[in-house]
Amino acid sequence: MKAEFYKMQSLGNDYIYFDLVTKRVSKKLTRYLVDNASQIAVNICKRKFSLGGDGIVLILPNPNYDATMIIYNSDGSRAKMCGNALRAVGYLLARLNKSHQQLVETDSGLRRVYINENSVMAQMGRAKFIPFSLDDLSDNTLTTSLKSALRFDLLSVGNTHLAVMLKDQKDVDFRLIAPLLSNKLDVNVEFFTIIDGKICARVYERGSGETLSCGTGACAVVASAVKNRIIDYGKTKVRFGSGELFVEINKDFTMLLGGEVKFVCEGWIDI
Question: Is the pLDDT of residue 23 over 90?
Fold first, then answer.
């Protein structure tokens, strides 16, 4: 069976999108995509073997809003939220229905996306902090590795993150420790530093591995930095290895995420 797709990315965080809202898609194909999305994600997200991506996104009709968004990671697990994918869904719908605002239902609730010439912005909801200490890890290797951390926070920004603030990224072996933390706590993990007021982050996403950028990860590190009074409320840039996203955080810890969205390609793929 073949399906039409779009591939989009934000700072290299790339997903494969199936538009079931504006395209004339048969009920049979829609049902097949919904029922088999997990395995489809595993099959077509393999880099060098298929289209490749950090995951797939189904854009489904919604009787009350512009669309419903469902996300599956490249390992086939379902993701509650992805800030970059949410912005890309809004961007795609805006191109097709010519509206500069989109209201999208997600597994983490209703989110509004704003589209202008320079960036795509999305409401990300309120950061919610979860009590956490190193003792919760019950793992000597992880506990010892994180003793050099300046701060760490477990929090939800639609999905759950462990934000770890370091003096220097070299203080902890990211490639070794981040996957262990992610698997142990079933969370996304960010290691971040703040130098001259600028946040630099590296992210390991549950279900996708290390990604070049992460929208909810950017929100998590900003919320952590504000909570610990390292930076102030307002608009802050978060630099990943592939570029910058911006997060605007309010005093109630509600956030707006912004940045670029780019089309990569479109076509048909065997699913």
Answer: no
> Catalytic annotation on 82?
yes
DSSP state of 180: H
Cα–Cα distances in angstroms (integers) from residue 92 to residues 21, 34, 104, 239, in the given order:
11, 20, 12, 25
In whole angstroms, what is the distance from residue 39 CA to residue 56 CA?
11
Q: pLDDT digits over 185-226, tens only?
A: 999 999 999 988 889 999 999 999 999 999 999 999 999 999
Say if domain 2-122+260-270 classifies as CATH 3.20.20.20: no
Catalytic, 200? Answer no
Angle 75-93-157 from CA coordinates, rounded to 5°: 50
233-271 residue pLDDT tens: 999 999 999 999 999 999 999 999 999 999 999 999 999
Instruction: Please pick, among 45, 200, 214, 219, the residue that the annotation labels catalytic.
Output: 214
Domain boundaries of the chain, sorted by first residue? 2-122+260-270, 126-258
DSSP string over 219-249? HHHHHHHHHTTSS-SEEEEEEETTEEEEEEE
pLDDT beyond 90 at 45: yes
Residue from 82, 200, 219, 265 carrying the catalytic annotation: 82
Calculate Rg over the CA atoms of the chain: 18
The letter for the amino acid at 32 is: Y
pLDDT in tens, 131-188: 999 888 988 889 888 988 999 999 999 999 999 999 999 999 999 999 999 999 999 9
Percent of the chain as helix, strand, coil, to the nearest 5: 25, 40, 30
Report the topology of domain 126-258: Diaminopimelate Epimerase; Chain A, domain 1 (3.10.310)
